[in-house]
Amino acid sequence: MASFDTVVFDIDGTLLDSNYHHALAWSRAFDQVLDRHVPAAAIHRCIGMGGDRLVAAVAGDDVEEQHGDEIRDRWEKEYDRIVDETQLLEQARDLLAAVGRSGMKVVLASSSIPKHAERPLELLRAGEHSDDWTTSEDAEESKPDPELLEEALRKVGGGRAVMVGDAVWDVEAANAQGIPTIGVLSGGYGRQELLDAGAVAVYADPADLLAHLEEALATAGGH
After folding, report:
1. Is the N or the C terminus of the chain less surrounded, counting Cβ atoms within 10 Å?
2. Is the entire prediction scored with pTM above 0.85?
3. CATH number for the 19-84 domain, one of 1.10.10, 1.10.150, 1.10.3470, 1.10.3210?
């Protein structure tokens, strides 16, 4: 474990079971604004990228230009209604604690808007189990742009870091920083998708990663 000094954790889909809640909120938002239905499966494949990018990625540049802000406003209201239904994934907090006990810094690289970050930060006891965290207000560019990771590392003075994330967008952002990524399947992305994006190892969920933490970090350290 000593080859790294910092572990950067994504939150949604990685530590918090929330990706499908986000997909549902976006689906309802698109339905309310557009005169056509956007398949939830298409939305899910873009969960993890910033909301400023998602509308165009899912529905096209014309929809973004004409309705982007309205759709994001509707998504925010829809997610507000269900955010309290989201729960931590099994042993998510234990995983953070184990990393902290090993002597590495823990930083939570969330791109959520601040009010949506409040619940997972509280559930994770972030003040106890992490050294710092980010929200959407900490970066002008969202994932897959690496700016949020840069800011996360700056906050904790991280040098040799490894990323833990559930989405290909996490992997792409980390790749751009030269940071290896350990993937988890708990956000609904496939194992091969994450490996093809560049993840160095993939585990089922936080509990599985915790059980194989030394192995996972050794694999990441070899890349």
Report:
1. C
2. yes
3. 1.10.150
